[in-house]
Amino acid sequence: MELIKILETRQEKDGKWKRWAKFKCFFCLKIVEKRMCNGLISKFKKGKIISLITRQKMKKAQKGRIVSEKTREKMKDNHADFIGKNNPNWQGGISFEIYPQEFKQIKKFILGRDVFRCQFPNCTEIHDRLHVHHIDFNKKNNKPENLITLGTSCHSKTINKNNRQYWTIFYNNIIKEKYLWIF
User: Fold this and answer.
1) Each residue of 91-125: pLDDT tens digit?
2) What is the three-class DSSP state of 148?
3) Residues 42/20, Cβ–Cβ less than 8 Å
């Protein structure tokens, strides 16, 4: 969904004030009025609240920016402690494995099966990008019952190597509940 216009702030039944906005759906092109979730309205940066529109403008301004070698070196030094084997989530380089050829075709099927929506329960965030996640973390297992659509932030929750067994069970249960009739 694309943000068109931020509307007013309204008081909800629970007494909390929430911001509302108009959005345009990418697929059906309908304009809908929805409540904005916290992650979409703003992010904190050095004590200031930055709106979604401002963040989009900042992102556009940074695109294509030329960075000097000196700046690149500084950026590398700041992140050197968490690159490769030094990163606590290092899995021995398995993220560099190549996906099998059939994954491209089945990825489109899975996105359609999940109606181009994040399948994380009660996910209200409007994701700018969707991922097809391998439930058992095996890139070569491309069976439909092993694949699920997740938004960027929901997919990043599954990365921690200490919780892989939890996420495997969690998403297997979701697939079995929703798509039992398919398999």
Assistant:
1) 777 767 788 889 988 999 999 999 899 999 888 88
2) strand
3) no
HEC letters along the chain: CEEEEEEEEEECCCCCEEEEEEEECCCCCCEEEEECCHHHHEEEECCEEEEHHHHHHHHHHHCCCCCCHHHHHHHHHHHHHHCHHHCCCCCCCHHHCCCCCCHHHHHHHHHHHCCCCCCCCCCCCCCCCEEEEECCCCCCCCCHHHEEEEEHHHHHCCCCHHHHHHHHHHHHHHHHHHHCCCC
**Global pTM value:** 0.53
Compute the residue count for the chain.
183
Alpha-carbon 171 to chain mean position: 16
Domain regions of the chain by residue span:
2-59, 101-179
Q: How far apart are CA 65 and CA 126, in angstroms?
A: 27
Buried b (16+ CB within 10 A) or exposed e, 37-67: eeebbbeeeeeeeebbeeeeeeeeeeeeeee
Please check the confidence at residue 151 and state whether its pLDDT lies above 80.
yes
Predicted local distance difference test score (pLDDT) of residue 47: 44
If you average pLDDT over residues 43-64, what whole number do you get?
68
